[in-house]
Specification:
amino-acid biosynthesis, 8-stranded mixed beta sheet, alpha/beta, about 325 residues, 4-stranded mixed beta barrel, Carbamate kinase, 10 helices, 16 strands
């Protein structure tokens, strides 16, 4: 076959440029190969992702989140997304002239406020997340914790100076019915779940998205719970950010809980609840870092902080000290 050209043949690159390009492509191939054992390990397994924080507010990070979720789906992982929407709720209440009140870090939720919470989480945020994910693959299906009795909650009280304080329509998930979620996963879908729940008393409750995701992960026998946050992970001496704890056991986390900042407590409690409920790994990742989920799932070292079950008692095994750095975590995965 001949090719007609006008004028002399123009080469696009020199041999040296071509060699550099091939080397760069080989590096990309090496990255894909590094992911292979993790793709094999997690193919067909369930991963529950709690979505919130800056990753939900920043436009570019929202796009990256949706791409990552669909990537996990195409990699054969059964993905479930649980979301909150605190900033969106606050904004809507402000527009209505309703002040937000918090006690012990929990929103005081009157019946009128609960109507707004339900409307924003189910009618606005859930639809936004579903639409975002479906731009990259037609898999996301929206639902709330009320649907098919997915979450049943009991009224939760805040503790102030050791005394219980009524904070209204705020609930704690006490039962999870996974049938509808499993059916969606079996059909290749990505359930996207708003964190509201039906109470046994017939009321509707605002439930913390972190703890709801943990309860769902345990009920689904998930391989991982991933909680996206606005920090790199758990630090040994916050606010000093030099010593990130890359891995710790449930017992070690339980010892640390009383000393944690208020914002980290529900996230780390969720990790503890998931691991104590049978989930092999729970992760706190920085949602501000693009592709942090993929870095955790598909690389040898991972990112963020990983919580694992307590080891079987063995006098010959000495656990590594907290904050020992990001060492390869294959043995723990």
């Amino acid at each position: 076959m001949s090719t007609e050209t006008e004028g002399p043949l123009v080469l696009d690159e020199t041999a040296a440029q071509r060699a550099r390009r091939v080397d760069a492509l080989a590096g990309r191939a090496a990255t894909l190969i590094e992911a292979l054992p993790w793709m094999q390990r997690f193919h067909g397994r369930t991963v529950v992702v709690k979505y919130g924080g800056h990753a939900m507010a920043d436009r570019e990070l929202r796009e990256v989140f949706a791409q990552n979720i669909v990537f996990l789906r195409y990699a054969g992982i059964r993905v479930v997304v649980v979301h909150g929407g605190g900033p969106q709720i606050n904004a809507h209440l402000d527009r209505l002239g309703v002040r937000s009140h918090f006690t012990a870090g929990l929103r005081v939720t009157t019946p009128e406020t609960m109507d707004v919470v339900r409307m924003v989480l189910v009618g606005q945020v859930n639809r936004d997340v579903v639409g975002l994910v479906n731009q990259y693959g037609p898999f996301a299906v929206g639902m709330s914790g009320e649907d098919a009795h997915l979450f049943t909650a009991e009224r939760k009280h805040a503790l102030v100076d050791g005394e219980p304080v009524d904070i209204g329509m705020v609930g704690e998930v006490v039962r999870v019915e996974t049938g509808a979620v499993r059916s969606l996963l079996d059909d290749g879908r990505i359930p996207v779940i708003a964190s509201v729940a039906r109470g046994a008393d017939g009321g509707v409750y605002n439930v913390n998205a972190d703890t709801a995701a943990a309860a769902l992960a345990a009920a689904l026998d998930a391989a991982k719970l991933i909680v996206l946050t606005d920090v790199e992970g758990l630090f040994a001496d916050w606010p000093d950010t030099d010593d990130l704890i890359s891995r710790l056991t449930a017992a070690e986390l339980e010892d640390l809980l009383p000393s944690l900042s208020a914002g980290m407590v529900p996230k780390m409690e969720a990790c503890l609840r998931a691991v104590r409920g049978g989930v092999p790994q729970a992760h706190v990742l920085d949602g501000r870092v693009p592709h942090s989920m993929l870095l955790e799932v598909f690389t040898d070292e991972g990112v963020g902080t990983m919580v694992v079950p307590d080891p079987d008692p063995d006098p010959d095994v000495h656990p590594a000290p907290l904050g020992s750095g990001h060492t390869p975590r294959e043995g723990a995965r």
